[in-house]
Amino acid sequence: VEFGQPPRSYSSQEIKLPMAARSVSWRNPYTAQLILEVTEAAKTEWNREATRQFNVVERSVRQWCKTGSVIKCLHNRKQAMQFRKMLVEKR
Questions:
Q1: CATH architecture classification, 27-90
Q2: Per-residue pLDDT tens for 37-74?
């Protein structure tokens, strides 16, 4: 092996970066039906239990519980946070 040259087993094509280093972020929108199920579970249990059960972030559960009445108006298959457009149009 020459000085300054990487070993052959570590070619640039074989090195795979972790997801954090790729700078590609995927957004996973939740349906209104799932949000309603999570908020109902959070009302009967603690928020942390609902996050474990549905594998979502606790911050999202707190936010969904605050805006629960707006989410109930949505169709079940609508994506999450689409209700903001409805609020802007009504004003």
A1: Orthogonal Bundle (1.10)
A2: 999 999 998 999 999 999 999 998 998 888 877 777 76
